[in-house]
Design brief:
With 193 residues, this protein is mainly alpha-helical. It has a domain of 120 residues. The protein is built from seven helices and two strands; from the N terminus they run ααααααββα. The protein has a two-stranded antiparallel ribbon with strand order 1-2. Helix 2 packs antiparallel against helix 3, helix 3 runs antiparallel to helix 5 and helix 5 packs parallel to helix 7. 28% of the residues are buried.
């Protein structure tokens, strides 16, 4: 008899648990999407190919991101820095960007001048007047930097063209951080190969 009472007790316990469960929620109105296929990765190679010979290194100019530069002065500063670090292709790239963006302004500024600005150490008023022709100064300097870099790369004909373009801006002045102005046109004449 003991076994019968145990069975009944189990049923009662079981029934009381069922009655304590919360009601079943209503079905969701929109069914969830089903995955029709599982994406797979490509199979891993079974062996790594071994090159038969070492390729020759190629030296090309690195792409230069200049979108961060907003002024012609920033381009000239970057071109000088690249030139000083013997990164001639990069120097040419920065100089050319400056030329492309501001050469028309440089031509306009030069056309308004009636005499060449001074070189060497100048007064604060002269310094302000020279800096007012920012495009002229930076484009003339950019042509000079470009010519110097091309000459270092042995591209003599292209260097001559760039020197001649620098010479075509005789009123351009470049500021030396040591405290004076110099003429990119005059320097181009003396450096022409």
């Amino acid at each position: 008899m003991k076994s019968a009472s145990i069975t009944v007790l189990c049923v009662v316990v079981s029934l009381s648990l069922v009655s304590c469960l919360p009601p079943t929620p209503a079905p969701i109105a929109t069914p969830l999407p089903t995955l029709t296929s599982v994406p797979t990765l490509p199979p891993e190679p079974t062996s790594t190919p071994v090159p038969t010979s070492t390729p020759e290194p190629t030296f090309t100019a690195k792409p230069v991101s200049t979108s961060a530069f907003a002024t012609s002065e920033e381009y000239v500063t970057a071109a000088w820095k690249a030139y000083d670090n013997q990164q001639y292709e990069e120097a040419i790239s920065f100089a050319q960007e400056c030329i492309d963006k501001w050469e028309n302004n440089a031509i306009e500024q030069q056309s308004k001048l009636t005499q060449a600005p001074p070189t060497g150490a100048v007064s604060e008023d002269e310094k302000k007047a020279i800096f007012a022709n920012w495009a002229l100064n930076d484009v003339g300097t950019s042509y000079f930097i470009k010519a110097q870099a091309l000459q270092k790369l042995g591209k003599i004909a292209e260097a001559r063209d760039a020197y001649n373009k620098a010479i075509s801006f005789p009123y351009a002045r470049s500021w030396d951080p040591k405290g004076w102005f110099w003429s990119p046109a005059e320097a181009a004449k003396s450096q022409m190969p």
